[in-house]
Amino acid sequence: MNPSSLSFSLNEKGRDFAVGDIHGCFSALQTALDTVNFCPTVDRLFSVGDLVDRGAESHLVLDWLAKPWFHAICGNHDFMTWRAALGNPYLEVDHQMHGGAWLYDLEADEQQRIGHRLASLPLVIEVQTPNGLVGLVHADCPYDDWAAMPKGNHSEVDIDYYLWSIERYKRQYTVPVRNLHALVHGHMTVPEMKILGNVHFIDTGGWSDRGHFTLLDLHTLKAHRGPGETLKPIVRLNYR
Ligand SMILES: [Mn+2]
After folding, report:
1. What is the pLDDT of residues 53-74, one digit of tens each?
2. Which among 41, 52, 167, 190 is most buried, taking Cβ atoms within 10 Å?
3. 195 SS3 class
4. Domain extent listing, the chain
5. How far is the CA of 198 from the centre of ligand 1 (A)?
6. What is the pLDDT of residue 232?
7. Most distant CA pair in the chain: distance in Å?
């Protein structure tokens, strides 16, 4: 099972960026990183999860997770992938129908390697910045106070929220999360970065031919727009 939380200290030498769902579109991500002159020796990139499924390069996920400057939390697609790869599929959603077919084309040992690596991703990352602590959770946070978040042993109910919920977005809930400078989510695909209180939704569909990646500078909270189009508001796909 995914471990709890990882904390990163202040990056005094370079910049920190967060990026939304990648979904196996690593080449397009690299193109976006080039537009901000991303420097692998000093900059860091934090993914809010959903590294795999849908895109054509999901099989490259282990190469990316091996990069010392790339850090990721677990999204619902990473979760479905590791559960299937390790022989315990998540039965509430048809993984293959939601972009997961690539996994089943791989050799069994490669599936195992990917499964173990994705199962080791944390559910929560917090990053210290010059302006305070920034949190990353894939889909949603059930707490109004970051200090109330469990540091370990997340409950099944909380994990379900972290991975799948769209409640905050659906309700357009603007109460900020206390004791936190900013919270960053992916999962909910939006035409441009959406801010509710201090919660930033940054999945602008860089994984889609019709969208673009947003790179959110965690030190300044300035959003950098990668190349590509602007998605039209979409009717959200219901997983379950
Ligand atoms: Mn997701």
Report:
1. 999 999 999 999 999 999 999 9
2. 52
3. strand
4. 5-228
5. 20
6. 85
7. 47
- What is the whole-number distance in angstroms between the Cα of residue 75 and the centre of ligand 1? 5
Q: State mean pLDDT over 70-97.
A: 97
Task: Lay out the sheet containing 124-129: strands in order across.
Answer: 5-8, 124-129, 132-137, 182-185, 199-201, 194-196
Measured in Å, residue 70 CA sits from the centre of ligand 1 at: 19
Class of domain 5-228: alpha beta
| Residue 238 confidence (pLDDT) | 63
Under 8 Å CB-to-CB from 109, ≥6 apart: which residues? Answer: none
The DSSP code for 235 is P
Measured in Å, residue 13 CA sits from the centre of ligand 1 at 31
Specify the residue for token string 């010392």: 68
Tell me, in angstroms, the distance from the centre of ligand 1 to residue 49's CA.
Answer: 7
The pTM assigned to this predicted structure is 0.96
**Three-state SS for 181?**
coil
CA distance 6 to 28: 27
Give 12 Cα–ligand 1 centroid separation in angstroms. Answer: 31
Confidence class for position 235, pLDDT limits 50, 70, 90:
low
